[in-house]
Write a structure and sequence with these properties.
Layout: E1 2-5, E2 16-17, E3 22-28, E4 35-40, E5 50-58, E6 62-69, E7 75-79, H1 92-101, H2 104-107, E8 116-125, H3 126-133, H4 149-157, H5 160-176, H6 193-210, H7 213-218
Antiparallel strand pairs: 1-4, 2-3, 3-8, 4-7, 5-6, 5-8
Length: about 220
């Protein structure tokens, strides 16, 4: 269900299932890891209303929550170096992972003399995953569920660059109607500032009323 990729290394295939909702990857030579990518393989989606929190165990230091995966966000890249923040060891996820991390096999050094690190994945309700990730650096503490229907699908799937292009295209088409002669916008064309203000008000009204699905229909 899960895959893990570290820069400069082969795809991790050593996923070990702890129980029905917890699994781990064992990572060798963790001191050399700056970033890692975790993703869904696409073979088995999460059940509706569920996601997976991603946890990293530093040898001798404990666990930290890195983020989460969901059907709407099937992959993520995490930066490790310089980001360690101890996590609450009382959580069920950390207790499940700690039972492995504290085992003799995980405390032993590898054949090359390097300690092992653990990358833990915990499948849990989406609301619980969002709550754990809400306080992470760079994450808004007011995470809202995505809207359903076509507008929600567009919001979840579109990338920022494509969204910016759609917004600019919508503005361009709107302002073109104010250019006389039917020649369209050009560097010499004059557009009253009031027209831009009117577009902005209309645009915000549409977004608040039904999301950004109308941008897809305008294509």
């Amino acid at each position: 269900m899960f895959g893990c990729l570290l820069p400069g290394r082969a795809l991790q295939t050593n996923l070990q299932q702890i129980d029905e909702t917890h699994a781990i990857f064992t990572l060798e030579n963790p001191a050399s890891i700056n970033h890692l990518c975790v993703f869904l393989l696409g073979t088995v989606p999460f059940p509706d209303g569920y996601a997976a929190t991603v946890h990293f165990h530093w040898p001798g230091r404990g666990f930290q929550v890195l983020g989460m995966l969901s059907n709407a966000k099937p992959s993520a890249i995490f930066r490790l170096r310089g980001t360690y923040t101890p996590a609450d060891g009382s959580s069920g996820s950390h207790a499940a992972f700690s039972s492995v991390a504290n085992g003799a096999t995980m405390n032993d050094v590898s054949a090359t003399g390097d300690l092992h690190a653990l990358l833990g994945l915990s499948i849990e309700p989406l609301s619980s995953a969002l709550a754990q990730c809400a306080s992470l650096p760079g994450t808004s503490s007011h995470i809202q569920p995505q809207p359903s229907g076509p507008a929600g699908a567009l919001t979840r799937s579109i990338d920022p660059t494509a969204l910016a292009e759609k917004v600019v295209k919508h503005l361009f088409n709107y302002l073109s109607s104010f250019v006389s002669g039917g020649g369209g916008l050009s560097p010499e064309a004059y557009v009253p500032l009031a027209a831009i203000t009117k577009w902005y008000e209309n645009f915000l009204g549409k977004v608040k009323a039904g999301g950004i699905g109308f941008l897809e229909r305008d294509d």
